[in-house]
Structure prediction request, 605 residues.
Amino acid sequence: MSREPLLPALVFWLVLALLPLWAPGWLLGQLAQHLGYGLLAMSLAYLWGQGGLLSFCQALFFGAGAYAYALAGLGRLPLLPESPALGLLLAVAVPTALAALAGLLLVTARVPTGPAWAVLTLVLGVIGERLAVASPFLGGSNGLAGLPPLALPLPGGPLELVDPLPSFLALLLVAGAVQLALARKIAAPSGSLLRAVREDPLRAAHLGIDPVAVRLRAFMLAAAVAGLGGGLFAAQFGFVAPPLLGLGLSTEVLVWVAVGGRGSPLAALVGALLVKTAEGLLGEWLGAGWPLALGLLLLLVVLLFPQGVFGGLLARLARP
Amino acid sequence: MPVDPVLLLLDATAQALTLLLVASGLAVTFGLVGVINLAHGELLMAGAYTALALDRAGLGFWAGLALAPLFVGLLGLLLDLLVVRRLRERPLDTLLATWAAALVIRQTVVALFGPASHTIQPPIEGSVLVLGAPYPAYRLLVMALALLVTGLLTWLLFATRVGLMIRGTVADRTLAAASGLAVRRLDAAAFAFGAALAGLAGAATAPLLSIDPQMGLGYLLPAFLAVLVAPAGGPVGTAVGAALVGGGESLVSAFASPVVAQLAVLGGAAVLLRRVAGRRAGRER
Prediction:
């Protein structure tokens, strides 16, 4: 899809914004966390749907953002003060830098988007998870707990984002802004460049587009969005551990995005919210059967709805 | 820590040959049929669990080794029928769907056998003196099996009619179909055969590893790296790839901790893979 339809997005955000009028606090708190996951889903939809780069390690950048927030929030970084705000900044900067580094390995004109790319992303995910588990600096397999919450500097004193309502509203604003920004990016000329490289890197290169640079930028942008989601998630959750960057979460994101629709960040976000909500409702009842259900769901969606459940719907709306 | 060079070399060879056995099925499904099957590790795991189940049922290890290829081959046939053949035109979705299938197989195993890990006793105990160093007899058997399978694969591909048909399909699918070859049936047969090899490898390596539901990825990544860094297609290329990845990991782990060795080999293979993939892409143009 080359254009995100604006109207469904606005309706969606309006409905979410009106939710606090009747929804109970626990639901808002849960949705705030899920919106953090939603940022991760949007990052993958951009990378995969627009860039054709199917990553099996997108949670690595989410987790890197979460860990960056945790380290800065706990004041564990040398020379840097103990500051949640700085943590949020690093939650974007560190994954972006990591993506630039990983991109040296992954994003070259010659490693195409096929098997080598997929296996390399898996390798990256495994390396990241093992390093996090083995590193005492990152808290090993126990992770880091007791993270401070984010605080908004308001005129009447700082407002800590602890209660469900302010957390929800903050996440709503950030996720909404990111979704609209990604929609603009997709519709912009640079979005066309990314799709051109996805469709045919050779022809794109012949037309004077540098496929490596275009892909690397997309990879870094997706990492930045995922890292922002990870940082905000950690700020609310108060706890980070290796599963936040592992292959398990990376696989879950794939399910959300495939179910929602890979072509559109909005559809992917809706997919994340729906699947996570379903997990909340059914997970306890299904117990260990939930991952099995997720696998079957992913299989069915890939076979029957390659555009995702909402992706097809949105594409129809986008048609003039 | 003094390291016995003979033992070091033996360990490296053992690991390389075990990896060769593990990667041989992948060399068929990926190298020949061209399907990137991310559930391959779980097929290997299914082979290991078949051996475990039959061993527990009192049928002994050898029954498991014989039946695992059959069972996992059938599983592969099913996977081809339900998933892989429907996505032939959508390679990116094949990746995703086989990854989903991997999750389904893994969770089914958790439901049947529980999340804990299990072990099987090697069917033959004792050790044999190799170049003056005592070496476990069962490991030597697995090494021999790897060489046998590679030899058989080479023979099958390059000296039989079926092998000719498969190579013809790989070289030019349209022409092969136009010449009257049942390419879809050949695909299915080759895919199931690759799965059967995975079952055999899973059962054969089961006594050497701890068997748990998460073991698939431990098989998948080294095997894929071995096949991907192989300088040429075919069984011999796979052997070179397996020697690089498996032997490399074994040699590094003699001097560093296993985690460091795994990371070093994964990283090294990834860098190597970039070069090989680049060269292959250049050749295809």
